[in-house]
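Exercise 7. Predict the structure of Epoxyqueuosine reductase from Viridibacterium curvum.
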Amino acid sequence: MGEDRGERGAKGFGGGGVGQIKAQERVVVRVWWHIRHIIRSVTGHAENSLDLLALKARVKDWARELGFAACGVAGIDLGAAESHFLDWLAAGFHGEMDYMARHGVKRARPAELVPGTLSVLSLRMPYWAEQDRAQTEAALADGERAYVSRYALGRDYHKVLRGRLQQLADRIAGEIGAFGHRVFVDSAPVLEVELARQAGLGWRGKHTLMLTREAGSLFFLGELYVDLPLPPDEPVTEHCGDCTRCIDACPTQAIVAPYKVDARRCISYLTIELKGAIPEAFRPLIGNRIYGCDDCQLVCPWNRFARVSEDPDFAVRNGLDAATLAALFAWTEEEFVTRMAGSAIYRIGHERWLRNLAVGLGNAPSTPAVLAALEARREDASALVREHVAWALARHAGR
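Solution. The predicted structure, encoded as tokens:
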């Protein structure tokens, strides 16, 4: 998914610079071939070198069999992206996401993150589960309904993609023998959008998400770092042109410039990553979005071509595509834990779930059901929840 804003992810060189890095890569490749030749000689394997082009083609076939819509190969020189990422951090756009800075430049240096890495497999998998886009628009327009970002309606994508990527790694190992690899799914210091761009999967949109002409942006990204010198794919050209629909549609104006998101303003960050109180200035702008936001994607012309996922793992769970704010606000912590087990939503916990819902209820119509739901938690055990409920009740009282 890769974005510089929250869960669905953020997103120079010292010494001799990029030229030196490329020279070092060539040395690593020669060393890899020498070691592999020795291993094959000792183990009795055929000494003929791998047909890397043929292997890459087979890997792409296996990826499709596992449900991935596309697979590409990227190199490990992310120098330009590293500079942009450091500028983004320096501007403080990552907010409380300290993990963005914790790993330093390893995000942009695959061989430092995973020693021995020579190339990266980048893969995408569609998640859109609704056949009719009007259902999504109806959910956003109904102030009493809760809007959950469509990627989070089904099973936790981290688990789904991680399992599929490991199956792909096992398939490769079955073909060539043991090899060095590591799986990443929006859970470690990886510049996934830049890797996907270099792997030819698409281009970086002005909203910072990966875009493709064939499938828009409604898909997940995953990576497999490998110690195989696979031939890289060619990047594709960009096709955003003069369009600024994503920038214009952002409810909180979080896209502060093309290709630059201030996460501190983004609803995905405010409802998922932020641990404390949501700044009052943003609360009315959040509307009924209780977990994430899709506005910048919903207005993108390229998402007319988004593919509907037929994977049962991404099918809607717990009726989250049609639930009301009041009904979800009534969940006890035990109900939240039981129902959200296996969902990406689980990690924000019951307290922040209620915080988000209180904001949604504060923006909802002043119906008896909405007011009764808020009154029921006026004296909630959580100070964070009580503060947001008080804000919501005051908002209704002032109408």
